[in-house]
Design a protein that fits this description.
This protein is α/β, with parallel strands linked by helices and about 290 residues long. It has helices at about 50-60, 75-80, 85-100, 150-155, 160-185, 190-200, 200-220; strands spanning about 30-40, 60-65, 105, 120-125, 125-130, 130-135, 140-145, 225-230, 235-240, 240-245, 255-260, 265-270, 285-290. The chain has one domain (about 30-290): 4-Layer Sandwich (Purple Acid Phosphatase, chain A, domain 2), CATH 3.60.21. It contains 7 helices and 13 strands. α1 (about 50-60) runs parallel beside α3.
Amino acid sequence: MAGFAWLVPRAPKGPKPPRSRYTPHPEQPSRYHRTIFISDTHLGTRGCKAELLADFLARNACQTLYLVGDIIDGWQLKRRWHWSESQNHVVNEILRKVDEGTRVILIPGNHDEFLRPYCGRTYAGIEVSLEHVHETADGRRLLVIHGDQFDGVISFANWLARLGSWAYDRALQLNEMVHSVRRGLGLPYWSLSAWLKHAVKDAVEYVCRFEQVLARAAERQALDGVVCGHIHQAQIKQLGKVLYLNTGDWVESCTALVEDARGHLEIVRWAACLPTPASRGAKVAREAAPLPA
């Protein structure tokens, strides 16, 4: 990420951001994965869970790390600069993985579309690619793509997408207020904004259409599945002959898609590890992909 520093708008002069409460946990050994996929971290926004993301990256090692779009929120940084110390920790954890030999592939999304002109190049050891075909340990070939290219609102009404992004940011602010109250009461993490999306019928229909379009795109390329982000809804499901996998996000659900040495794929919900009295000692929630036929 350090190689992209000159591409991001400069921070205005002013007081330094507050110190992060993030501290690594060396007493807990890292889990090793063959591959980790994360997306929609939206670094540069107040709603991103940078401390949790840095914690996840510190505790989970991998052979290949895919950053599947909207890693840096260029839309927000153009409107108002926000960059905390915990977001620096995320960047440092990614660069540390590069230094340790992890292959890191960045696939720009619509919020970090300023990186798309640099696809095909490598910066600070991070490969930038518009899309990528990943082969799992058991031989399945998966299209890895952010997914905004198949979103009609993004493609044909960008102004509406930006208006929606602004409204979504306001919902995330309310979400943070709810989270703070629940944490004070010792309750586990719960996302109000995610609940609202699931409760609205039109949003559910939009998600279903998005999934079907992505599955058809993978099928046209004779691939076994597709890994994407964009809609902030982690999911693993079989759609006809295509395995659809969505990595989720790090502003609402704090999810990642991981692959083990046998090619087994599952969603990890890192928010289950929030250090509240109710969640202390809880196991990480996981959702596994169906085994290939």
